[in-house]
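Many introductory courses stop at the sequence. We go one step further.
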Amino acid sequence: MDNNGKRCQGCGILLQDENVLQEGYTTNLENDICQRCFRMKNYGEYQMITKSNDEYLDILKGVGETKDLVLYITDLLNLEKNIEQIRNIISNKMILVLNKKDVLPKSVKETKLIDYLASKDIHFEEVIVISVNKNYNIDYLLKKIKFHQTSKNVYVVGHTNAGKSSLINKLIKNYSDKTQELTMSPLPSTTLNTLTIEINDYLTLIDTPGLVDSGSILNYVNEGMVKKISAKKEIKPRTYQLRKNQSIIIEDLVRIDYVSGEKNSFTLFVSNDLKVKRLLNLFNNDELKNQNKITYEMKYDEDLVINGLGFVKIVNKGTIDVYINKDVETFTRRSLI
């Protein structure tokens, strides 16, 4: 049946009532959301939808053809290695929004986070640290949106699970009399198409699908583990003093062997729900050694970043072996904290 172009208010997909196996299925075209969003919202169920990044990149290029202000949302616990990727596609005025401050320890000063991004020499109109969950700096963000916007339309972009839909829902709740709510999920690919949300007379947000990060560990674990990995409250950093030939294992996800170097400090910034154990002798245990091995020569004060999981701050220089799924991206950077 023709739905006259009606789209799901939760994820933006075109609604249809003919094929239960296809995107956008609903039992009745009078409904405002698709079956997938209904079940996610009411029962916490999730159905994986895979789209290629080519489709997403085409949408982002379309955003770049406008002159509208862009909000680029990123997750502080999982700052992308190539944070300039979206900036290179879109030349519009852009505000970088660093979300989820509430999961980093309160001792972390936001000026340090902003300075860290400034050192990358990527131009943004503003870099603003927020917490959607704690309603932190949302008023300030809106003030800066008003200052920089070039029209009513403001686009929202970012990778999956950065908190785009959560931020839009917060802006709807705080500044609009609308009741529409976007579907939120800790799993990738929740927003399937662009969604237009009129907040008030001077601001219309256009939500875009999140760029799928194929290197994120979230793509390679089950739903239960996704929920454990996704930090919901302030992380309590766990510090381990390691000598060479000792190891740290996080769940059954990653093993870090300290191969050589002086006594060293490894501080884990990962979800409190994840179990961590230390091995006092890496030769007595072959756990996870069947995974892909990557060797890093760590310099002083560097992080080992595990995409989607968090990061490990390592104080002294030394050699580490990392055992992890071959498709999960890891990299090193100057210490964020």
